[in-house]
Amino acid sequence: MIEARHTFAGELVARLYSGYKLEQVFRSVRFHIPPVEADMPVLLLSNHFCWWDGFIQHRLNRQYYHRRFHVMMLEEQLRKYPILNGCGAFSIQKNSRGILNSLNYCTELLQDNSNLLLLFPQGRIESLNSPSIHFEKGLDYILKHTSHPFQMIFNINLIDFFSNRKPDLFVYTSAYDHRTRALPEIEIAFNRFFHHCKKQQENICR
C-alpha cells in the first residue's frame, strides 16, 4: 500500500481545489456543522457522489476540525494522481491480500488525536438519488480493531441548482454516539441521517 504523506506542494494543491476551485464549481458552499469534541481523533464517514469529494471534506476539516487530514482511495487512482498522496491520501487495493495493510493503517491513524480519517463506506461513487447507502465490510474491521477512543462524524453532502446556473453545495454533519460499534446499526443511523438531510433540502427549496 501507499501510505499518506503531507507535503508542502500537496497542501497547496488541496487548498487550491478545496478553496478557489470549489467556489468556481459551486455557487455557494453552505455548512451545517454542530460542535465537535476536542482532543480526539475523528473518523469522518461521508457519502460519495462526485469527483470533488475529498476536497469538500478537506475544506470541512480545515474550517472546523483542524486535524491532520487522511483519506483512503483506490491504489490505481492514487497512482494516476500522485499529488494527492501529498494531500494525505493513502491507498487500498480491493480483493487483494494487501487490503489488511490498509485497514490496519486506518486503525493506526485513529490512535492519534491529531488525525482525521475520511472514509467513503460505500466504496464507490453513487447517485444522490440512491434510496440508501450500503456499507462495505472494511469499516467493520476498523471498528473492531481500534481500541483508542475516537469521535465518529457522519457527513452528507447534497447539491441543488434552484434557478441558478451553478449548484449550491450543502455540507451536513452529525456526531454519532457510538456506544455500539456494530456495523449494521451504524449503517442504519447513517442512512437515517442521509434521509434527514434530504428532508432539510426539501424545506430549503420551499
Can you tag this structure with a few keywords?
single chain, 7-stranded mixed β-sheet, 6 helices, 37% helix
Overview of this structure, please?
This protein has six helices and seven strands, in the order H-E-E-H-E-H-E-H-E-H-E-E-H. By secondary structure, the chain is an alpha/beta fold. Strand 6 (151-160) and strand 7 form a beta hairpin. Helix 4 (99-109) packs across helix 5. The termini are far apart. The mean pLDDT is 92.
Distance between the termini: 47 Å
Give me the number of helical elements: 6
| Radius of gyration of CA atoms, rounded to a whole number | 16 Å
User: Helix and strand string, N-terminal first?
Assistant: HEEHEHEHEHEEH
Biggest beta-sheet profile: 7 strands, mixed
Helix-residue proportion: 25-40%
Class by helix and strand content?
Answer: alpha/beta
Topology:
Elements: H1 8-25, E1 28-32, E2 42-46, H2 55-65, E3 68-74, H3 75-80, E4 89-92, H4 99-109, E5 115-119, H5 138-144, E6 151-160, E7 168-176, H6 183-205
Parallel strand pairs: 1-7, 2-5, 2-6, 3-4, 3-5
Antiparallel strand pairs: 6-7
Entry summary:
This protein has 206 residues and is of the alpha/beta class. The protein is built from six helices and seven strands; from the N terminus they run H-E-E-H-E-H-E-H-E-H-E-E-H.
